[in-house]
Amino acid sequence: MSLKKAVQFDGLYDQDQFIGLTYTAVDEKAVYLFYLAIEPAKRGHGYGSQVLTLLKERYPAKQIFLDIEPVTSEADNYEQRQKRLAFYQHNGFNLTKHRLIDDGGIYDICTTGSHVNLQELNKLTRKMNIFAQSKIV
């Protein structure tokens, strides 16, 4: 359930077993995967890749965006950040030169496309974020 039409929460199940969830914002041209969570015990079994494949199949004509913590060697969870970036790259996402800045920090933007329309992307992030102000730079 979502408070906004353009925002979707989806529960992920394998048969009757809960696997995880996604939180996305959708508009005419793009999809922003704001959150992908897989149950810890289910990680490493291909569910995350399957979710990304299903998302691409659900929105074949739309560019998909997501954000990740910057991969910096000073970060306490540097190895986790490296693995996360490698996972998304393995699944067809490219790291862009753009960043999302919001109340929670600064995040690198990844996308399935090659061109980033900043005006459209900022519009999309405003749809997903009810309380915090965010912008793409």
UniProtKB/TrEMBL annotation:
Gene3D superfamilies: 3.40.630.30. Residues 1-113 form the N-acetyltransferase domain. InterPro entries: Acyl_CoA_acyltransferase (IPR016181), GNAT_dom (IPR000182). It holds the Pfam family Acetyltransf_7. This is GNAT family N-acetyltransferase.
